[in-house]
Write a structure and sequence with these properties.
246 residues; 11 helices; mainly alpha; 79% helix; single chain
């Protein structure tokens, strides 16, 4: 088991709660999880531990929102996202995490600006993007970034906001996307020795905290109005993108 002091255990438990909330309630709440995990665990180990926590949280989210996922969107995103995962696997050998993060940040901020322009300047009557390249481009980018940096959340927020999904379908579609994607990442992560028996043991120990977060997220989502939900997820996506730049 990893050598963790009391602060280390508290930080990882807090991260597990935030991941649970982000999976079932407010996407983007877990923007601080990656740096927090890396602050108490070796960098490569933190990536593997976090992937395990994400998968366990996905089980709660995908199970609870099993009737709310919009499969027409998932069918467009998942195949090209898998191609992105493969590209990200090989990209880990050519592009460092430090090089990738600012690239993601710039892309996300650009897309958020575009989405704001569509909704405000062109009004709410702006057409929903139906071009094949929109879903293909964001799906591929999500696959690459989730494989290399566990940073696909803001990209999915952009896509689902553009589709103008109600908050329950928004979270349900996101939950099933990451449920499938994170499992697809497992063999690649194991081959890179990011996931180990030690990381899996630590993940299972965090299960109660993930459950607390998942239940909290469900309760919060029921209370928050649709307009406030859209604003919050956009703000969190922007904060995450800005953080990646520095």
């Amino acid at each position: 088991m990893f050598e963790l002091d009391l602060i280390g255990w508290i930080v990882i438990a807090l991260c597990a709660v935030m991941v649970g909330i982000s999976k079932t309630g407010i996407p983007g709440v877990a923007i601080l999880v990656v740096p927090l995990m890396a602050s108490v665990l070796p960098a490569r180990s933190s990536v593997g531990v976090l992937l395990g926590i994400l998968i366990l949280a996905d089980l709660f989210a995908a199970g609870y929102y099993r009737h709310n996922a919009q499969w027409r969107h998932l069918s467009r995103l998942l195949p090209i996202a898998f191609v992105g995962i493969v590209a990200g696997y090989f990209g880990l050998r050519a592009v460092s995490d430090e090089q990738l993060k600012p690239m993601i940040g710039i892309i996300v901020l650009t897309m958020l600006g575009f989405n704001y322009w569509r909704s405000k300047v062109k009004s709410q009557d702006a057409p929903i993007p139906t071009q094949w390249w929109f879903a293909a481009g964001l799906g591929f980018l999500a696959g690459v970034t989730t494989m290399m940096a566990n940073a696909a959340g803001p990209i999915m927020i952009i896509y689902l906001l553009a589709m103008r999904l109600p908050k329950i379908e928004f979270v349900g579609t996101s939950a099933w996307f990451f449920f499938v994607i994170n499992w697809l990442k497992v063999p690649f992560s194991a081959r890179l020795e990011l996931m180990t028996m030690e990381s899996l043991k630590l993940d299972l120990m965090m299960l109660p905290f993930i459950a607390i977060g998942a239940i909290s997220g469900i309760l919060v989502l029921k209370k928050i109005p649709q307009k406030a939900f859209n604003i919050v997820v956009q703000i969190l996506a922007a904060v995450a993108a800005i953080k990646l730049l520095f």
